[in-house]
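Q: I'm writing up a methods section and want to include an example of the input and output format. Could you take the sequence below and give the corresponding predicted structure tokens, formatted cleanly so I can copy it straight into the document?
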Amino acid sequence: MEQTCLKAREASLKLALWSDDQKNALLKAISENVSANTAKIAAANQKDLDEAEKMLAGGELSGPLVKRLSLQGPKIAQLNSYLESVASLPNPVGVKQFGMRLDNGMDLERVSCPLGVLAVIFESRPEVVVQVSALSIKSSNAVILKGGKEAKNSNRALWEIINETLVAFDLEGAVGLMESREDVDSILSQDKYVDLIIPRGGNAFVQYIQNNTKIPVLGHADGICHVYLDSEADKDMAIKLTLDSKLDYPSACNAVETLLVHESVAKGILPDLAAAFKKEGVELRGCESTTKIVAGLKEATADDWATEYTDLILSIKIVKTFEEAVTHINQYGSGHTDSIITENEETAETFMGSVDSGCVFHNASTRFSDGFVFGLGAEVGISTNKTHARGPVGLEGLVIYKYKLRASGQIKGDYSSGKKTFLHERLA
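A: Here is the clean output for your methods example:
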């Protein structure tokens, strides 16, 4: 693992000097190689799918993870869209953020630069290999990937295609692959080489990573997302957006898990909404007030408000006030994505200012919380941190900055003694 990290470090130093044209040429070459190997990708993925069905039957793998595993037909073609989208984005490296003339002949500037070496650990979805590799290359970072064992054949096939292209560009090591749990434990100690770990998985897994490494960790433990139907919500819109927030991709981290409904609209909306959900096979769990409006519901407990189901289950709570809804979200939410449905613009703005989450929406499905949707090209993960990156993390979350000072022989002693004074003139 130390050798893998060392190779990644060496590759990252090369990438830091590459022009945007060079990086885009590499991404284009990877895209062409993916297109030339669709049969290889599909065959490898089918092996994983066949094995996953056995693991599902044996209780070793959950249904949501199996759903995320498929990489067939259109989803393979989507890989090229990711690569092309990332290549089309502006170069995030070398962007001047700040300029200051300290004195005549002494100019300071702050410019964006890559983080260095990333380690990204994820479950199931093999397309992450391509998404994260593309974002890392575009931001001039090297990356070491670790996918779940359920996608081992798919992950290796995609990595081999990418690595083959990297070798041709004399950049071997820029994308590395870990394949065992022992590799994960090993990389946690590589703080000499690895600059950031991004774990994508469940709460227990993310906490394990955070508690066992000195390396900075960026990510989210849970995706407990809310939709709040305000007292001034449009009924048709409320039903449409709530259904989409749960049904579009139930196992995604941006799927709604708890629906909050203002008591003034509950009787008018919940019966029709519950009927629509039941038709789709969604299990509904409600607070005491909800069960009085919709018969036959399982009563929700405090644990339900704090649970990410990643499945066809939705908890519902009726609230008496807007303030109660916000308080509930800030207490039980995970800081991921929360949405308000209302025709009142002022209420919506108050909601988006009060809810402490990385993504806050007005009259929109929570499913829009996504790096590709946001125009970031793709995403390396979702962050609920309050550090340098929050929400869907695209290119801007994979760069930091450095200060560059260009002088002409000045010495600090002249300014310390008062012989000279700083100008501190802002530069464009």
